[in-house]
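Quick one:
INPUT:
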């Protein structure tokens, strides 16, 4: 047995931790069955050499008798800012034998107090209206030999750090989005290898991002109370081999100048004029004598906090699937995949060729790009506003020009390129509208350059011969960007349709993981809380999202008012407290906190957020009338039948009270636990009194959402459940085995059916190919992501119908936690429909879980992997429990495996950690 996969606060070897008692976790690898931990010892040292000598100079936990491997809080000497901590762990197994120590891991503290920042905030202007993105640089000299160097940077809205002519990171769009008047994130970079003895230079380039949205929109982001011109703060800390330190800060030695990025917008795009490039502007020997002094500007109101989430990166590069020219001069690239990001250009063109790239998800009938279904909200207040459009002006020359935007991203499947020549002396407009028109003063100097090219184009000031531009599939590539969470789940089955739906869910989930969980990557990019909690289970089964959701819970906390109410979108500039919210959305706060406890075994979450969660439930109570709440949005994006907002709101009110009572119990707050348990019981009574018809066994109007909400959320009385389930089945059959729900009901129905003996019917819903269904999107419309509406009238990359990405793991493969953090595991696969195979591989926080079943010739083969230090209750589908074998042996001969009971066509086994191959007869 070997400790492995060491993490600190969910992260591998993180820099910039600003939690005073960071938590440590590990997995245990073993080739043996039934291995478990009975004790551990953690060593934390201030140097690697000390750790090699098994000296815990900062903390030696001693032998701690426990099986816990998750979220062990550091309990050693007080940690100071920038302290580097080397750690390792060994454990004792069930026989009292100790393992070797693990491979070493590290974490490093960030800047813990305001006094650790020795510089101030700098900018190029205080003007918030569109300006060229500013460049900043500072030269300095290092006289000693460097041991280590760290740069701590917050560049608002987005900041990119360069050292000696090179970017220091491959991350993009740093730092992550927050409510900037409450919390501002900084990023820690290891720049040891970027610096050198002698002269050095630092460079920063800033973009507007979410911090300075200057285009109007329905969510009033342009009126945000934090809005200001881009600015940054920097602390470079250099440690020398002689033990001394030097700091370089954002002080009065910085200079600034305009960059070639003439215009950049969160929703609009970016304009870049390569003719204005300042070559090697961040290099040591660059002449900045013509630059201006940087301005000292006001600090944002928010507290500086470390960015403890995986950064956004270009995680995949896509080649276009096809290129068409629907009109002269118009080139439309189809990537065959909807995703978030931007394109990278790679081409040669004459000096001053303006290339306009528009991004979208649909094509018009004539084959050109159609943005109408996603652009209308941005253009609601100003129809002329630019949307999802980048502009690049070439510098010419023999070298290939390679470019992609820095401070924006888009949602798209199609990219439409047009180009034209700028006349002698003509300049591009800094913020061209959708037509990419030049300034009025230069309009006469510009003519459209047709793609046929090769002709002389007469321009004001003379005749210029323009050679033909040849565009091909190599001219552009698609850069897929998202928060770089680690994949942890893989699903496959004998249903190709189901496999495609799972893949589409993953693409939508990642496209909407942009430091916050967004609704869509094109039209809004808003952190709608309804979308966040509806897709959280799918996200957790597929990706390592513990750090990501921890950050988002802080974002939600920052938005809560003293009264306890929450907005529908987080972060927000103030919009969403009077429309767009309500328990069906706001309950993301409680539900995500529960998910972190349930899936990751995170108990600190309840400690950090308990008072805020309590304030939210108390707010709902203040809005309740006779135990019923009706505030905001309900079963959004319904197909046909409406469901009462009061019903769905009250259902979430109940869930909030139940989970709060459980959190209070875990925290030892027994009085409050009892109080909120009583509240939950009273809500359940009120819900059934108001909505349940005992004669018909229906809730409210009998909609699928209403019936399944009562089942899924635990509101139905036990004795009524069989009749309610029968009504739900009847409704689905009356709809020709189709869903008739919105986003809430889609999650409720699939899980309620599966948990009450009708997984086969849920599978039929999952694999339908006619409207409304996921399969309709995939098979009929050719979707590669999930859509916003069943009828395909809105965005084509939304995640709010995405819980099916969890359903395939939880129901078909049967993987779910039976104890927090998968310390105990439930494996209950469902053999349904025409499926003959389903496989789920899930790297849980406690280790790899595998559930892989196959049918052949009336026999079932079930391959399982149960992580070391855990155990599982396994439901083996079989018609004859006595005939089950493991690796060809009768169960009685398998050490540690125990037949517990037989129930509903399953043999229920107690299975310890290890790998197993169970077999037995099976007949449908």
């Amino acid at each position: 047995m070997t400790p492995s996969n060491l993490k600190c606060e969910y992260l591998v070897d993180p820099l910039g931790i600003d939690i005073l008692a960071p938590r440590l976790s590990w997995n245990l690898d073993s080739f043996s069955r039934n291995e478990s931990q009975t004790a551990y010892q953690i060593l934390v040292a201030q140097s690697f050499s000390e750790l090699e000598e098994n000296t815990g100079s900062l903390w030696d936990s001693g032998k701690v008798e426990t099986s816990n491997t998750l979220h062990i809080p550091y309990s050693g000497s007080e940690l100071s800012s920038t302290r580097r901590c080397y750690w390792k762990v060994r454990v004792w197994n069930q026989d009292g034998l100790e393992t070797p120590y693990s491979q070493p891991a590290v974490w490093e503290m960030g800047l813990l107090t305001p006094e650790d920042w020795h510089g101030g905030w700098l900018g190029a202007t205080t003007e918030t209206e569109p300006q060229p993105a500013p460049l900043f640089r500072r030269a300095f000299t290092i006289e000693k030999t460097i041991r280590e160097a760290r740069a701590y940077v917050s560049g608002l809205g987005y900041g990119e750090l360069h050292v000696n002519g090179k970017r220091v990171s491959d991350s993009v769009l740093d730092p992550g989005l927050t409510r900037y008047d409450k919390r501002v994130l900084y990023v820690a970079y290891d720049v040891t290898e970027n610096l050198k003895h002698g002269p050095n230079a630092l460079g920063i380039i800033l973009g507007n991002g979410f911090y300075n949205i200057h285009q109007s929109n329905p969510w009033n982001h342009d009126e945000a109370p934090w809005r200001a011109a881009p600015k940054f703060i920097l602390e470079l800390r250099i440690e020398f081999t002689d033990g001394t330190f030097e700091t370089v800060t954002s002080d009065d030695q910085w200079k600034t100048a305009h960059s070639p990025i003439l215009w950049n917008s969160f929703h609009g795009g970016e304009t870049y004029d390569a003719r204005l490039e300042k070559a090697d502007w961040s290099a040591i020997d660059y002449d900045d004598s013509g630059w201006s002094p940087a301005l000292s500007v006001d600090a944002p109101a928010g507290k500086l906090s470390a960015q403890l989430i995986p950064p956004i990166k270009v995680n995949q590069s896509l080649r276009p699937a096809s290129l068409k020219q629907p009109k002269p001069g118009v080139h439309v690239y189809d990537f065959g995949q909807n995703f978030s990001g931007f394109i990278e250009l790679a081409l040669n063109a004459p000096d001053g060729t303006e290339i306009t790239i528009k991004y979208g998800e649909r094509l018009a009938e004539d084959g050109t790009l159609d943005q109408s279904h996603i652009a209308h909200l941005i253009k609601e207040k100003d129809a002329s506003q630019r949307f999802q459009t980048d502009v690049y002006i070439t510098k010419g020359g023999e070298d290939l020009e390679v470019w992609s935007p820095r401070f924006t991203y888009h949602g798209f499947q199609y990219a439409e390129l047009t180009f034209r020549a700028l006349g002698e002396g003509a300049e591009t407009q800094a913020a061209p509208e959708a037509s990419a028109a030049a300034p009025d003063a230069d309009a006469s100097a510009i003519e459209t350059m047709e793609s046929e090219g090769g002709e002389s184009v007469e321009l004001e000031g003379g005749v210029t011969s323009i050679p033909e531009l040849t565009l091909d599939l190599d001219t552009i590539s698609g850069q897929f960007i998202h928060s770089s969470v680690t994949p942890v789940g893989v699903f496959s089955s004998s249903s190709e349709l189901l496999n495609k739906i799972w893949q589409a869910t993953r693409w939508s989930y990642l496209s909407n993981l942009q430091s916050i969980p967004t609704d869509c990557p094109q039209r809004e990019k808003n952190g709608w809380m309804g979308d966040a909690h509806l897709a959280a289970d799918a996200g957790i089964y597929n990706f390592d999202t513990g750090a990501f959701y921890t950050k988002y819970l802080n974002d939600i906390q920052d938005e809560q008012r003293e009264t306890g109410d929450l907005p529908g979108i987080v972060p927000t500039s103030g919009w969403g407290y009077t429309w767009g919210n309500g328990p069906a959305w706001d309950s993301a706060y409680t539900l995500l906190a529960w998910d972190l406890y349930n899936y990751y075994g995170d108990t600190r979450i309840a400690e950090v957020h308990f008072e805020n969660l309590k304030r939210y439930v108390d707010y709902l109570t203040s809005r309740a009338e006779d135990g019923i709440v009706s505030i905001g949005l309900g079963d959004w994006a319904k197909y046909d039948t409406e469901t009462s907002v009061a019903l769905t709101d009250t259902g979430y009110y109940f869930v909030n009270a139940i989970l709060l009572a459980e959190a209070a119990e875990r925290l030892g707050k027994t009085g409050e636990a009892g109080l909120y348990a009583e509240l939950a019981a009273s809500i359940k009574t009120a819900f059934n009194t108001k909505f349940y018809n005992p004669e018909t066994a229906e809730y409210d109007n009998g909609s699928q959402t209403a019936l399944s909400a009562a089942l899924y959320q635990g509101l139905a009385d036990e004795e009524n459940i069989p009749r309610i389930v029968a009504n739900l089945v009847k409704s689905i059959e009356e709809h020709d085995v189709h869903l008739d729900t919105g986003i809430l009901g889609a999650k409720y129905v699939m899980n309620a059916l599966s948990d009450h003996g009708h997984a086969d019917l849920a599978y039929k819903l999952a694999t339908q190919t006619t409207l409304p269904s996921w399969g309709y999107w995939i098979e009929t419309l050719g979707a590669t992501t999930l859509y916003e509406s069943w009828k395909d009238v809105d965005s084509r990359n939304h995640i709010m119908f995405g819980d099916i990405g969890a359903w395939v793991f939880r129901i078909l493969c049967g993987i779910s936690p039976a104890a927090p953090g998968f310390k105990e595991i439930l494996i209950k696969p469902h053999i349904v429909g025409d499926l003959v195979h389903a496989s789920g591989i899930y790297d849980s926080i406690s280790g790899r879980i595998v559930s892989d079943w196959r049918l052949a010739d009336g026999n079932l083969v079930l391959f399982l992997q149960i992580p070391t230090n855990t155990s599982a209750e396994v439901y083996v589908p079989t018609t004859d429990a006595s005939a089950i074998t493991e690796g060809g042996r009768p169960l009685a001969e398998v050490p540690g495996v125990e037949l517990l009971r037989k129930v509903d066509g399953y043999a229920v086994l107690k299975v310890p950690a290890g790998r197993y191959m169970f077999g037995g007869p099976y007949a449908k």
